[in-house]
Every structure is written in C-alpha cells, then in structure tokens.
Write a structure and sequence with these properties.
This protein has 500 residues and is of the alpha/beta class. The protein has two domains: 123 residues, Sandwich (Immunoglobulin-like); 362 residues, Alpha-Beta Barrel (TIM Barrel). Strands 3-4-7-8-9-10-11-12 form an eight-stranded parallel barrel, surrounded by six helices. A six-stranded antiparallel sheet has the order 2-15-19-20-25-22, with helices on one face. Helix 3 packs across helix 4 and helix 10 runs parallel beside helix 11. The two termini are 31 Å apart.
C-alpha cells in the first residue's frame, strides 16, 4: 500500500471559496433546453413547462449561478427573438450548431426557471454578430426599473420588476475561428472594453467577464490574454478560461493526470493578469471565471453523423464513466487550490449536453460526474487551506509528473466543519493517507464518503442509474490528533470532520 502525507496549517490560507465556483451552464444546444429543462408536453412538466424531475436534481446540486444562453450559440443570438408572446417569436437558423432554434424558451423563461432552481443568471451578450448597442439594450431590458423603451418592453412582456442580473459575459470564445464574428485579440479587446464601459455606465453594480483563450492549446494563448487585459483592465472584473479533456487514446493514467495541465493553465493566466496589473500600477486583481470546464469526447463521433437543421437533436450527449468522475473530482480540487483567483466556475453543461443530469421521456437520472460536483457544492464552502501533499508521483505521457494523490482541505469556520477532498489516481494500489489534525483537536470524523469501482468504464444509465454512486463506508480514524485514512485505488474521497 502506498503512503502519502497531507500537511495543513489553519493560519496558512489560499482564499475564501466564492459560491459561484460551483456554477453551471445552459446553452441553446442539443437537448439542454428543450427536453432538458423545458418540455411542456412531458408528464413531468409543471405549469410553466419546466421539467420537475430535472429541477429537483438541479436543486440537489445546489447550483449558485448558471451561464446562459451560450456558448457558441450566443455569437448569433438575437435576444429580442426570445421574449414576448411565444406565437410571435421567429424560428432562426443557428449556425453555431447547424440546427433550427424555435425560440419557445428564452430570456424571461430562463430567469423564471433559475428562480425555481435557486440559481442566479450569468448572462452573455452577443459580441460576434452584434456589439455595444445590443448589449446596452439587453442590459436595459434586464436591469432598468422602468420608464425607458426596453425596460417598458419587459413590463409589456409581464415582468414588472427587473431581473437584476449582476454577472455578464462579454461574448464567447472570440479567439476561436469557429465563432461567428471571430476577431483578433486587438479587435475583440477594443469591442469588449467599449461594450463594458457602456454597460457599467448604465448599471455600475454589474461585474463583467471578458473572453480569455478557449483552451490552453490555442496558438494565441498568452498573447491573447495580455492584449485583452492591457486594453480592458479598468473595465473588466474577470477573464474567462475554458478547458475540456478526453481520453481518446484510452490511456487512463494520462487522462487522470489532465488536471496537472489545468493547474498550469490557471497559474499562467494569473501570471498574465498580474503582469498587466503591475505594468499599469493597478490596485485590483483580475480574477478568473472558469466558465466552461468538463470532460468532453465520448459524443464526438456520433455528432459527426447528425443531419443538419433539425430541432434540438441529441447533440454532445456524453455518457460519463467512472474515470470521468475521478477527473472531474481532480479538476474541482485544482480549482479549489486556486480559490484565491478562480472565483467563478461553470461545469459545462447542466442537463443532457455534456452534463451531470440526463433525461428521457420517462425520467431523469444522475451521471457519474454528478457526485463529485454535488459533494464540492455542498461541503466545499469556507476557506481553502494551503494543502501540501507528499506522495509518490508517476509520469503521464502528455502531462509529465503527476501526483498519485490529489487533495485539498476546506475549513468552514461558520459551520465548524473541515472537509478533505481527495482522489487516489493509482489504478492498482490503495493508499494510506495521514494528516496532522492537532490544530483541530476537537474535531471528529462525521463521515468518509467513497466512490470506487474496479471498472473505470462503468456508467450510469436510465436502466441502471445507481451503477456508480458514493458510499459512506470509508475507512478513516483520528488517533492522538493524527487522521489516518485508507483510500482505495482509483477512488473519490470526501472526509468530513466537525467539532464535538
């Protein structure tokens, strides 16, 4: 059995966890909206057409904020099409995903749905085919109290009070040639800056997220961020990061080391933000919105076979296996280890489309990745402690040196709880992990949650929705102030401790 040591000090802090770190994403893509969260003809639908079974699972996840309406979709989005009487809303060609958008669910419906889900809206504006004027009008529609063209239009549509949306994305992935209205760094930076200035003139209380690189492997990565932040430093609050991973070569050890790449990606973006801050003699930090992240590769081949111009087809419907859940856990741990600068996170996406929740006409169920997301959202609140991990390492083909143990510790002083999140990535051996808890001498183990399976490719399906699920059967104890835990090979672990 391998051995590892985790070292913490209650005074050595990384930073407070922003609750929005556990956000998610709904795009007008595939069955995320139609048949996912909205299906009026379903027996599961409520009076608004919202699927109640989906809502219950979303509420279980405790999702604080949800990005909308895209994604690639937003770069061609005409928001006016999505509001007002449904019989007057036009169907539109969506060039992002080569489908027909029927616009029967839009901005106001999403705001209503988020209220039922207990989530805030993170709204994106179209900076692909549109610009400053449209962003200003949309913000006026959403946030202005009344007495103007667009705020009064909202009232005509049945919404007397403003939606009061506070977090806004300035476009999506504008560095990507696949994007409608793709721009150079200089072109986008100028547009984002001017759009952001106007939006904050209208509502100074909002926060703005500007598009960083679409992935760490983009050829413009680094120079894009430097150009963007140099232009927009005084206007924006966050720079976005997007990152997906896949196990296309069926190399599980390399795949599970992908969070090493994510860790470096975050560190590099933080360094660029701080370089510009220093260059400008600035006072504020530009923080990070990791507003698209997940595993995505299972559905690629099937998506290539889809016919174009259908309505909400089965697109990007990855069926997640157990090793995907382990990597999602490691990615969450990595984000927490950067909680001082990663303040917003959006698991992409929430329902059906590369998602923790799947639906059919006969029900909804939890995918394997649902559980680490759930555990972090529920128990990963408070302050992240600087967590030093001493453990054996292995060499991953693409990512270099990777620790067998990913771990982070979160201290919630308000609830007097200490939570340890850990992934043992060793595919063969269990691991004995020790942690000196003498600074938390009155804390005892409340539970040790484990998700483990011998089959890395095992999945949850509608027919067998509990094939992979966590158990409260972990082996851990505290003796003389030292916690000792046994972590099974290829396992996700959550150890919760609380005061006597």
């Amino acid at each position: 059995m391998k051995k590892a040591q985790v070292i913490i000090d209650k005074e050595y802090l990384v930073g407070d966890v922003d609750k929005r770190l556990y956000g998610s994403f709904i795009e007008h893509l595939g069955r995320a909206v139609y048949e996912g969260i909205y299906q009026p003809e379903s027996p599961f639908a409520d009076e608004n057409g919202f699927r109640k079974d989906t809502l219950e699972l979303v509420k279980e996840l405790n999702v604080p904020i949800i990005r909308y309406p895209g994604g690639n979709f937003v770069s061609g989005f005409c928001w006016e099409d999505s509001v007002g009487p449904k019989e007057k809303r036009p169907a539109r060609v969506d060039l992002a995903w080569h489908v027909i958008e029927i616009n029967q669910f839009g901005l106001n419906e999403f705001s209503d749905w988020c209220k039922k889900a207990g989530s805030q809206v993170m709204m994106a504006v179209n900076l692909g085919t549109r610009g400053v004027e449209d962003a200003r009008n949309l913000l006026e529609y959403c946030n202005f109290k009344g007495g103007t063209k667009y705020s009064d239009l909202r009232k005509e549509h049945g919404y007397e009070e403003p939606h009061n949306i506070k977090t806004w994305c300035l476009g999506n992935e504008m560095d990507g040639p696949w994007q409608m209205g793709h721009k150079t760094a200089e072109e986008y930076a100028r547009l984002a800056h001017e759009t952001g200035r106007v939006m904050k003139w209208l509502d100074p209380s909002i926060e703005l997220v500007a598009c960083g690189s679409s992935a760490s492997g983009m050829p413009t990565f680094g120079s894009w961020e430097a150009t963007l932040i140099d232009e927009c430093y005084d206007t924006i609050d966050y720079v976005s990061m997007h990152q997906y991973y896949g196990n296309r070569d069926n190399d599980s050890a390399n795949f599970l080391a992908s969070n090493v790449d994510l860790d470096q990606f975050i560190s590099n973006v933080v360094a660029i933000c701080d370089y510009v801050k220093g260059k400008k003699h600035g006072k504020k930090n530009i923080n990070i919105s990791l507003d698209e992240w997940n595993v995505w590769y299972h559905s690629n081949e099937a998506d290539e076979q889809l016919e174009k111009w259908g309505e909400h087809p089965h697109q990007l419907e990855d069926v997640y296996n157990f090793e995907d859940a382990l990597l999602v856990g490691s990615m969450l741990i990595t984000m927490l280890r950067h909680a001082d600068r990663v303040k917003i996170g959006c698991l992409a996406q929430l329902v059906n489309v590369i998602a923790p929740i799947m639906t059919s006409d006969t029900g909804a169920w939890r995918q394997t990745i649902f559980y680490p997301y759930l555990h972090c959202s529920l128990y990963g609140q408070g302050t992240v402690l600087n967590t030093i991990v001493k453990c054996p390492i292995y060499v991953a083909k693409q990512h270099g040196d990777a620790p067998f143990l990913d771990c982070v510790v979160v201290n919630n002083e308000e609830s007097e709880e200490l939570t340890i999140f850990a992934v043992n990535k060793d595919l063969e051996e269990d691991m004995e992990v020790t942690l000196d808890l003498r600074q938390f001498s009155q804390y005892k183990i409340k539970e040790h949650i484990v998700m483990h399976d011998h089959d890395l490719k095992a999945v949850n399906t509608e027919e067998n929705p509990n094939r992979i699920k966590p158990e409260r059967n972990g082996k851990s104890e505290v003796s003389d102030g030292i916690l000792t835990a046994e972590m099974k090979s290829k396992s996700w672990n959550v150890i919760r401790l609380g005061r006597n």
